[in-house]
Amino acid sequence: MDCIFCKIVAGTIPAKKIREDDELVAFFDIDPKAPTHILVIPKKHIASLAQAEAGDAPLLGHLLEAAADIAREQGLAQGYRVVISTGPHGGQTVDHLHVHLLGGRQMHWPPG
Ligand code: AMP
Ligand code: ZN
């Protein structure tokens, strides 16, 4: 499968990984949009949130819990934003589900 995030999971392309367990990998975004910008991804290839199934609910919860724990570790005590871009209108550019963890600056609403 020609999926860049599956290759990061497999270790065949490099990434600055900060966490890995049986189900997920977290690494720094290559093109950060905030002082702290980390991606948390499932090891399992799920193309987007729209393709997640009921059985993926524990995995999705694990991704969010990991994002919150990494935010604590990164010292984002003032808060942060978690984003899951989904599909073309969601601005998704990599078709492997990923949770953006953005922090270290004031976020604004609405996002672009
Ligand atoms: P999205 O546009 O929401 O699908 O997010 C995809 C994110 O993946 C973007 O923020 C990219 O900067 C990031 N990205 C793409 N390729 C890599 C890579 N090789 N290593 C780390 N982050 C990447
Ligand atoms: Zn993948």
Task: Offer a few descriptive terms.
binds zinc ion; alpha+beta; 5 strands; 2 helices; 112 residues; binds adenosine monophosphate
Describe it.
It is a single chain. Strands 1-2-3-5-4 form a 5-stranded antiparallel sheet, with helices on one face. The chain has 2 helices and 5 strands, in the order H-E-E-E-H-E-E. The protein is globular, with a radius of gyration of 13 Å. The relative contact order is 0.22. It is an alpha+beta fold and 112 residues long. The longest helix is centred in the middle third of the chain and has 17 residues, at 57-73. The site of adenosine monophosphate has 12 residues, from loops.
Report the major sheet: 5 strands, antiparallel
- What percent strand? 15-25%
> How many separate helices?
2
The structure class reads alpha+beta
Bound compounds:
adenosine monophosphate, zinc ion
Gross geometry:
globular
Distance between the termini: 31 Å
Q: Which strands sit side by side, in order, in the main sheet?
A: 1-2-3-5-4
Percent helix, as a range, is 10-25%
> How do the helices and strands follow one another from N- to C-terminus?
HEEEHEE
Number of strand elements: 5
Q: Low-confidence segments, ≥5 residues, pLDDT <50?
A: none
Radius of gyration over all CA atoms, rounded: 13 Å
| Mean pLDDT value | 98
Overview in brief:
The protein is an alpha+beta fold and 112 residues long. The protein has two helices and five strands.
